[in-house]
Specification:
The chain has 13 helices and eight strands. It is of the alpha/beta class. Helix 6 links the parallel strand 5 and strand 6. It binds NADP nicotinamide-adenine-dinucleotide phosphate.
Length: 287
């Protein structure tokens, strides 16, 4: 069935490029470094319209897909419309194409952070199947984590289709309540920056202690990578994996105790809540 589906991207920026790469089995960044996945969709099923002709041309050249000169032509041609414009331009992009969207009623997959499905439904006065997706930047190398929410008008077939599209750039998880997308935003949406911040601090501490910058970065990044892969591959609980490397009176225990005395849990919770509340605030502003 997927071989007959036509997928359109409104907006041809970084996230569209990543997902198109995933759909056809190419990663948009570091293709030589990461394993190439087999494409789930063929390039002739994928269409794009960006308002910048150069981006359309670049995507067609990179992935062998087809670009349309207008959003209207794109929407008329496709079964799934992935709206991948910035949140601030989202309402304008939908309003400008209301008639075509109402008539064609494609499955809408919105990637825009902070745009609620009830807003989209209110702008388009026709029953629509809408999936709201919150991906993250590791999608650029096919290692994304995406939270998905579907409106009640969205059939299980549409949900499966949305899942199969987003899963080409990593893994995806469904949430039952749209407010959970704000939590997903604070967890996996913003999460890559938290780990990068920790890496920056670890590298800076190692340099201060005398290690050269290249060695510090190589060791820190590989430690993050290896730790994530170990946690993902192991059946053991996270706390057990950590206690396995925290021997009494050892070096790791000293660092863990230091984190605890600085209230790491509280610091993380406070930062997490700041991100979650900002996600709610942005969505309120965009309504
Ligand atoms: N990148 C991420 O990590 C990430 C994570 C989660 C969610 N998202 C969401 O994914 C969406 C896309 O992000 P991105 O990073 O790919 O953004 P981006 O690089 O700015 O790409 C958006 C593209 O859409 C074009 N565009 C804007 N309005 C248009 C319209 N009405 N018709 C046709 N083209 C239009 C933009 O053109 P101009 O440059 O001329 O404006 C730009 O080329 C955003 O809503 C973002 O919130 C991204």
């Amino acid at each position: 069935m997927n071989s007959e589906i036509k997928i359109g991207f409104l907006g041809g920026g970084n996230m569209s490029s990543a997902i198109i790469g995933g759909l056809v089995g190419e990663t948009s960044l570091g293709a030589t470094q990461f394993s190439k996945k087999s494409g789930v969709f063929s390039p002739n099923q994928i269409f794009v319209h960006d308002r910048n002709a150069a981006k359309n041309e670049a995507l067609c050249a990179a992935f062998g897909i087809t670009a349309f000169a207008s959003a209207e032509q794109l929407i008329e041609a496709v079964d799934v419309l992935i709206i991948a414009v910035k949140p601030q331009g989202f309402k304008t992009a939908v309003i400008a194409n209301l008639d075509t969207i109402s008539l064609k009623k494609p499955l809408i997959i919105s990637l825009a952070a902070g745009v609620r499905t009830k807003s989209i439904q209110a702008w388009v006065d026709a029953p629509l199947a809408i999936v709201r997706a919150m991906p993250n930047t590791p999608a650029l190398i096919g290692e994304g984590a995406t939270g998905l929410f579907a409106t009640s008008n969205t059939s299980s077939v549409h949900k499966e289709l949305a899942d199969s599209i987003m899963s080409t750039v990593g893994l995806s998880i469904w949430v039952d309540s749209e407010s959970d997308i704000d939590t997903v935003t604070a967890l996996s949406g913003s999460g890559p920056a938290y780990f990068m911040l920790l890496l920056e601090s670890m590298i800076a501490a190692a340099i201060k202690a005398g290690l050269d910058e290249d060695s510090a970065k190589i060791l820190a990044v590989q430690t993050a990578r290896g730790s994530a892969l170990l946690v993902a591959a192991s059946d053991k609980p996270l706390t057990r994996l950590r206690s396995d490397i925290t021997s009494p009176k050892g070096t790791t225990e000293q660092a863990v105790n230091s984190f605890a005395s600085s209230n790491l849990d509280g610091i993380v919770e406070q930062a997490f809540e700041a991100a979650r509340l900002r996600a709610i605030e942005i969505a309120d502003e965009l309504e």
